[in-house]
Design a protein that fits this description.
The complex is a heterodimer of chains A (291) and B (308).
Chain A (H helix, E strand, L loop, with lengths): L18 H32 L3 H4 L14 H10 L1 H33 L4 H13 L6 H10 L7 H8 L2 H12 L3 H9 L4 H12 L1 H16 L3 H6 L8 H11 L4 H21 L1 H11 L4
Chain B lengths: L6 H6 L4 H36 L2 E4 L2 E5 L3 H8 L3 H19 L1 H12 L4 H13 L2 H11 L7 H8 L14 H25 L4 H9 L4 H29 L3 H6 L11 H11 L3 H32 L1
Antiparallel strand pairs in B: 1-2
Helix pairs in contact in B: 3-14, 4-9, 4-11, 5-9, 6-9, 9-11, 11-14, 13-14
Classes of the chains: A mainly alpha (291), B mainly alpha (308).
Amino acid sequence: MKFDRKKTGIISVIELKSWRVKALYMVLLVFMIIVALTCLLPPLWVMLSSFKTTAEFSQIPARLFPEHIDLSKIARVWKKTNFLRAYGATFIMILGDLAFTLVINGLAGYVLSRLKPKGSMLVFTVILWTMMVPNTMGMVPLYMTFVNLSMINTYLPMWLMAGANAFYILLFKGFFDSISISYIEAARIDGCSDAGIFARIIVPMSKPVIVTVSIFTINSAWGNFFWPYMVLKKNELAPVGLKIYQLQTQAIISIDEYMMSLMFVIIPAVLVFLIFQKYIMEGFTLGGIKG
Amino acid sequence: MKFMKPAVYSGLIKPNRKRTLFSSISAWILILPSLILLYMIVWQPMILGTKYSFYKMQGYTPQHFVGLNNYVRVIQDTQFLRTLGNTFSYVFWSLVIGFIPPVLFAIITNELIHLSKFIKTSIYMPCIIPTIAVTMIWFYMYYPNEGGLLNMLLSAFGVAPQPWLQDASKVIPLIIITMTWHHFGSTTITYIACLQGVNQELYEAAIIDGAGILKRVRFITMPQIMPIILLNLVRQIIGIFQVFEMPFVMTGGGPNNASLSLALQSYRYAFVFGNTESALALSCITFIILLVITAFYFRLEKKLDRDV
């Protein structure tokens, strides 16, 4: 094992020449590999179980691996559970969430960061408080509001909630604060309006924050369960998070088929993560987002 | 000499009245949608919820003011103390099980140069799986027969299948283990980001002074991440105190109300028993308890702001 690359951290390269420190390093490495495997094992088990037959799932003694892997089962379960419709519903929900999150929170961040009209400091303080004060009261009154505005069986409640995210407002504000004022002044001299400056100057320069917020929005919308459960009373409107709950409670499929349906929810999320990993990890330095 | 000033100068740095008025109107128009939504989704529910907790409700319509009656009824409910105790039990177990590991994992991972990318990616992976899917995965891992992963592993060592979630004394720690598995990755990554900001020269100086590895952790690493550790502590307490979705899906509050939290009980009042006013009163009680904790959080944050 080579340690030349080690430049940072508590243990230095020179110390790693001693066998005792080397042994300590190996113990720590093995320990973290076990932790990493603990994270991977549950989803992996679901994947393996999804290929088992119903009898195999509860046989004694139980086995980790299925007898044989039948790939056609994927298509069969996909059709039987009608997951295509759930994907479509989720797609619509995500598009709305994205539009509301980016436009409404983004504009608010822009106003607080750059335009700062009289009284905006007060608004800023109120938004800060909004983020800090725990919202335990929300459930019942919000449901009442959605019923009164006849938003039951639409995606509007989820979209509106996506648009009211104090944390993203502050994240956008923080990013816009770092854009040099001279760009904005130059555009203003050229006769650009406030909304025009936002669309033509601010947005193109804010790609990192927009991508990061988008990914976190997509991720949270993908598995959104509780509010869809509250407001979507028609089965055909159910997005994947709700669908996977309904499949379990209605018990119309066997346990191994259920495991496969779980994979339909997990795999797209994992794929998005692997593709945009860089932006997700950057999100932590951007503002310490809690996933 | 006034006429020597460039024309744009007076318009920008020292805006005239008309320009300010116009631009503040257009600015307010741009932020208006956000304010309307925040009002509708966050503030109004808070105000209405508090107000209606003092009213007799018929379904979702308030009837008449009843003072503290709803509160008295909620507190006298046989389940109230149980629920409050359960909620504190959730917080207690989350601190025992979930608080230290992210710190430890971050410090270790930051030392590793082999496989560190694989480890970071794997650790973060559970965070991106939707909560509902995580809940369901673990529901089946805790499955009481031998098909469940944990019982399968136990049977490999010859141990009889355990009832897991159906055991009232273990249900809360088991739910907390699931939540910890789901969330510890993002906390670990935040700590790692913080550790990478530690000045390397401090360690080198400590080595020269003859400080061992543990001493370096104690006197250099820990002081650097202490502010974030403290903030996470309060955040975690506040977050777990409102625990809802996982017990709701996993156990429904069972067995025999052993995992019933305040938020879940409030949901049941409103949407299972059709008792809206009790739901609101209980939420308000939860809110007051959390307000005390949040006040502490603000003081802590202020103190840290001064220190840094």
